[in-house]
Write a structure and sequence with these properties.
This is DUF3016 domain-containing protein. By secondary structure, the protein is α+β, with helices and mostly antiparallel strands. The chain has one domain. The chain contains four helices and six strands, in the order H-E-H-E-E-E-E-E-H-H. The strands form two sheets. A four-stranded mixed beta sheet has the order 1-2-5-6, covered by helices on one side. The chain has a two-stranded antiparallel sheet with strand order 3-4. Helix 2 packs parallel to helix 4. The longest helix has 20 residues. It starts with a helix and ends in a 14-residue tail after the last helix.
Length: about 180
Amino acid sequence: MRTIPMIAATAALALLSTTAIAGEAKVSFEKVEDYTDFEPASGIEERFQKRQMDELTAYFNELSQQLPKDQVLNVTVTDIDLTGRLEPTFGEGGSNFIRVVRSIDFPVLHFNYQLHGADGAVIKEDQVKLKDMSFDFGSMATKRSQNDDLYYEKKMLKSWFDETFSEHLKTNQPGESA
């Protein structure tokens, strides 16, 4: 009796695994030491930067899952200016810093990309300079950003990705053949 639900679950997982495989992203970061603002408010700079780069790489991969199977998005990040500015605070332990977010401290991200097809040919490429000067409009943005250090940068990337690759995004629904 247990075999039927087990077979159904296995079949569902197999179906999901074949439809989940799609485009991928390969992300590199160039001359990180020259980025406009890529510093932590506290902690070790190398660890902070690695964590942020890993998170951005994962997000580019998440976005690329919408691309057709076998397409590869190569991204080279050339500059990052994180939302907000580091400002000193003074207390018992001496000087520390906090990241203060004001409407004039919008996120900026510069990168180059190439979208490659299954045959390796370049489908689309460009040099991108993103900035979102209206990043703080909307009451939900502030509440949601407290749970994600790169919320505003990801929001900006999502808008860019959807607009740039709208004609390349998968239109198949799960379970449909490509």
